[in-house]
Structures are given as structure tokens and as C-alpha cells.
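Below is our example:

___
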Amino acid sequence: MFRRPLEFLNSLPARGDLVEIRLGPQRAWMVCHPELVHRMLRDTRTFDKGGPQYERLRALMGDGVVTCPHAEHRRQRRLLQPTFRPAAVAGYTDLMAEETAAACRDWRDGRRVDVSAAMLGLTTRLISRVLLSDALGPAAADEVRHCLAAIVRGLFVRTVVPVDVLFRLPTPANRRYRHAVRRTHELIDAAMTERRRGAPRDDLLGLLLAAADREGGEAPVTDREVHDQLVSLLLTGSESPSMCLASTFSLLARHPEAERRLHEEVDSVLAGKPPRAGDLPRLVYTRAVLTETLRHSPPGWLFTRVTTRETELAGRRLPRGTTVLYSPYLLHHDAASFPEPERFLPERWLEGEEAAGPHGALVPFAAGSRKCIGDLFSMAEMTVALAALAGRWRLRHPPGPVAPPRPGATLGPRSLTMVCASRADAPAAAAPAAGRARRDGDQDVHHA
């Protein structure tokens, strides 16, 4: 599990639908069949957020929407939902295109680019602007990006080797992790303090602070909860989409026919212009490329739950407090659901919902009431970024072997260096018109 986790996961379905494994000294169960995974994800009262993964995440994120127990989740989700509704996501499209343009502003033909860092910088700046507007300046956003890199490296080992004493030792890795966690919390606290001194803003921080200032109603929103929600959404909203985008460019460079079809669609739909909300439903193949990346290399590849009462699963009695795991990577690479699972085939997603495989085996954003609150936002963000970048650039692997994706808290390339090639065959970019009015249909992102 620790040394060769992906190979280990792929070996488990042959052993049954529910397989006993060990996480360090702890006994746990891996759910290997998609029907059982959906049963578990729908029954959040019995299979609550918990286990080694969420114990570590709670120390980092507190009890925000990502990690809070079942009893708190509905209230928190309702509080945050306005930011992630389809109409709100459509309103962020221009911001997404603006940040994508900034991410590749310094790229030059023939230059080597750290794609992993560029995508993490893009997603960190974007989610910080959605959550905090300008309360987290460029220098602070860059520091958050560096902190995230240290945090995700440390989270995986803390999940698969849940032995606390090891992580209290003053090793360089442990010191880096603790410093990154501390600085992330300090930066969020500073942003909250600055906002309280200034004018209200129409962002998630403003929404949360207004809820905290209201009297009466449901359980009050405390400053601690505001802090936890911001940390949770900042971390999850930057790391996972950046890993998916980096994986996408790596896969496209190794599959020229898929890249050619992507470029044809982007050139036809955008004609050299930045993506707008109304363009997203027409970027059908672009979405298929991203969906296939989420199947092939899901950033969220391993999750834990814990039973809140004695229950039965796959014919086994599980006592209260049992750690249960499921892996989107395992489900997405099972040939029973996805023929030729190791092949990168965006075309499989042009066939409609049936392509998701029997039993709903595609679960990159989980399922049930705790499905990722930002799934629509993330897909729109990645669609805009991929279309905008592919409209101008080809990215090529340097000579030599391509390193496989590295599992950590998320799955993806952590130091992906690629060579930029300007697309001479791309349509010329049109200069944006000042004060351009929103087109009819710009709110339509239900296919994004």
C-alpha cells in the first residue's frame, strides 16, 4: 500500500468485493465493487467521514464542509451552496479565462515549463479570488501554493501509516509539514482580519461573515467555522483540479490523435477568443478529455469512512468504529466497468451516460449527499483552462521516459516539466472588446 499503492489497489478486486487490509497496525476494509461503494456513500449516517484520512484532514481543516460529521453537513452545505450554483459558476467564467491567460503569460516557444507548478498557481489564484476576492494578495497566494505542496506530500504517509509518534519526531519532513499547516492558517486568519476592517465584498468570505453577524435562526456561524470553511475549500479547490490539468496535458502529449481532435474543437468553437460561459456546452470533446483524465488518473484516488454503528456490508458484519476505504482509482481501472482501462480513450465519453460503466463506477467527485460541493465549478474551471491553453499551445514531454503519476494526498504529476510549442495552426486571437455585454446563453453551463 505504501510502496506500490496503485499496483496494490488493482490487485484487490480479484480477492472479492470487500477485502481486509491493514493500515499500519490498524485493520480496515477496502470496498471493491461500485454497487457497494454507492450503498456506502448514500448511507452517510452509518458510513460517516472518518478513519485515518479524515483524522489527519481535521487536524488541518478543522470541521469544515469537507470533514465535518454527518450531523453538521446539511447546514454547512446549505450555507455554502450559493457560491457553487450553476448561475454563480457561469459568472466566474471570465475570471477563469483571465487567470488562465495570466498562468501562461511568460510561456515562450521552446521553453521548458513546470506544468505542475503552473497549474497549481492557476487554481490557487482562482479559488482564492472566488473565496476571498483580493484579501489574499499575489505574494500570499504564492506562499499558499508552496504550503500546499508541502501539505499534500505529508498527508498520504500520515494516512497509510497512522502512527502518531512518527510524525512528532523533529525530522525535516515533519518540520516542513507543520510549518506549512501553520502558515496556511495564519494567512487565512490575516485575510479574515483585513476583511473585517474593510468594506463588505461579494465573495464567499463576505457570505460567511454576514452569516456570522446574523442573529437568531439556525446554529450560529462562528469565526472558527468561517476559518475552517475557507481552509477546506482553498486546499481542496486548488490541489485536485491542478493535478487533473497536469495529468491531462501529460496524457495528451502521449496521445496525438486525442490532442488533434481537441485542437480542432477548440479552434472551431472559440476561433482564437477566450472561452465564455456560453461556449462551454459546445466544448463536448474537451469535456470528454477531462472526464477520461478523471477516470484514468483521478486526483482523489483513496478515501476513508468509519462506521457509526454495527452494520452489514457484502455479507460481513462490521462493528462500530470500523475503518472502510474506497478508491476511485480502483473502480475506474476495473475492466469489468471500463474495457481496456489503462488506455486513454476520451471517445468513450461521447457515447452518453452508459459510458460511466455498470453500477455507476465513475465516481471522481464521490456520490450521495456528500458529493463534492464544487464539482460543477471544478469542471467549468478545468474546461476553460484546457480550452484556453490548448487554443494557443502544445505541450511536449522532453526526451526520455515519462515518470508515472505519484500518489500522495492526491494523484498526479508533482514535478511535470514540459516543452512549450506555440500553435502556428491556431486561429489568431481576437482582441477583447471593452465593456462587452454578456451574450444570451452565457449562463448555460449545465453541460460543463
In short: The mean pLDDT is 88. Residues 5-422 form a domain with the Cytochrome p450 fold (CATH 1.10.630.10). The first strand starts at residue 18 and ends at 23.
